[in-house]
Amino acid sequence: MNPLAEVWLVARRELARIRSRMFVVVTALMMVLVAGLLVLAKLLGGSSAQDVGFVSAETARLVTSVSPEGSIEAVTVPSRAEGERRVRDGDLDALVLDAPLRLVVKSSADDTLRVTLVALARQAALDAELARADVDPGPLHAAVAAADVPVVSLEGAEDGLEKRLALSIGMAVILFIVLQTSGLLVAQGVVEEKASRVVELLLSAVRPWRLMAGKVVGLGIVGLLQMGLVIAAGVVAQVATGAFDLSTGDVLGTAAWSIVWFLVGYAIYSLLYAAAATTVSRQEEIGGVTAPIQILLILAYMMAFVLLPADPHGTAARAASYLPFFSPILMPVRDVLGAAWWEQLAALVPALLTIALLVWVSGRVYRHSVLHTGGRIAFKDAFRGR
Amino acid sequence: MSLLPASYPDMGDLELDSVTKSYGDRRALDGLSFRVRSGELFGFVGSNGAGKTTAMRIILGVLAADSGEVRYDGAPLDDSVRRTIGYMPEERGLYPKMKVREQLVYLARLRGLSANDARKSTDVWLERLGVAARAGEEVQKLSLGNQQRVQLAAALVHGPRLLVLDEPFSGLDPVAVDVMSDVLRERAAEGAPVVFSSHQLDLVERLCDRVGIVRDGRLVADGSVDELRSGGEAKLVCRVEGAAPGWADAVPGVVAEGDVFALEPGADEQALLRAALEAGRVTEFAWRRPSLTDLFRDVVAGETPKEAAA
Questions:
Q1: What is the ipTM of this complex?
Q2: Shortest CB distance from B62 goes to which of A13, A192, A203?
Q3: Which residues pair with A360 in a beta bridge?
Q4: Confidence class of residue B257 from pLDDT cuts 50, 70 and 90?
């Protein structure tokens, strides 16, 4: 059997976890949570489009074209009476009548809509006066259209920063949970084989590194599926509700980077967890031996809350997000906060080098300690092979 | 009738050649050499810590030897042959939460069987070992005896061309011991070399074509049970009714151990018989060849009998 086929055979055994109740429940829960939070953000967001009824389709087009993008949802109604009934029922937020322009609302009118209609009415009045004076309104329209007020931003444009911060924190939470659970699954799997002593039987058929690789790959696929489903739920909810002011391209880009960083983070952390777990022989000892790794992960998670919101692209945040053990959480979060794509690529370099180093170190530690039973082995001895 | 799914027409001899292995300062194997021929049942005996388990782990490649070589069919034992070994480690172990059938199919596939062959063979062995009814249960839900049977199935499921079993009989009920014995004989009859270690020497004596006794990491006796027994020091059993204690003390070259007498080289058994006749009524006077247990005690001399027989 070639090595890859063997690694795959070992990996496939781990895929059985996908059918486990634990996986199904946790994944479904996270999907519902993510989608639910997006819907909630949409509902609480307030600045949703107004449903405005029009008797004339031409007026509808005109008003929509001069209104701020996404602020109104035009609906054509067959008659004034029908429109008024729907406004009274709360089905429509407002009804626009023509010749002359009038705005019908239940109690009070939305300012944006009113300002837009007032501008249109004034222009119509102006046109009428000009026509009476026999003046061509064309050049005047052009001059009016060209008038604009430039915005001077003293701290650079930050498009919807508050909303992006909320999104970035959600991203940090998901990555933290999935990395943490997949890492612990790897640790438990390694110790299960040692504690049950089945590992000696396995090693008589499979080289140690293939056994370890199979486990890491198999559980990686499980984690990737979980991550993918949760992110997909988020993307679908975002596209459907438009809760965040992001283009679909931005949303897909963010989703893609989060998957890339999940894979990188999983590789780093699962190798650490696997190496730590081989030095013990009982499930109860996992907590103690993996504590330093959990602390690293928690540090990365905390930085996403503490360091990034204050100044997402400052020196401290930037430096931390390039460190291999932190980048898998900090980089996708900074992506949400608007970091350039080349920063993502640059941070991948130290992360991938770390993975290569960990494959070597963890493979060595695993090979030296996987058959050792009894007390915990010092990492130093496990690395040297006694 | 063979129940084994795969057979290898080219089954060869297993050879260990001057294998050494040390753990730190302790030398576990000290130039261990032996050969198990194709179709031979080889009993591997020795006291605890003599190096049996280490030797088996080296054959399986689970441990690496410091020096020396393991050969199969004249060539160094490589991974492709190792994969076909049927192995029962000293430390029994299966995935506790994996279902019996799934587990055996998985182990068979790791040893190179196709998915289809693995399933077929698993069913054959579960049936034969009497655990077919438990196929869909998690291993941890089985009784210890049934877990042992599954463990045996794990060693056999891929139709091994070489069997290496560390204490295969320990923890088995008498019925399972019979099944196990039959399976080992059958596998040997098909040409596989079979090595197993055991402390149940009567079983080894009954079952094995050849026995190797290991002490301090070295083979100190190697031969068929008959060869070993005839090579051992035969003793005289002499029972005399009404004789005073110490009646044989005057006979030269004779050491008494109750009714059993060891004769030094050149000592005359006829002189002992004469002394016996004078001492009382002789009810029994016969040569007794040593049992494997006696030999074992002689060979591992220096240890207390209690330890040696443990």
A1: 0.77
A2: A203
A3: none
A4: confident
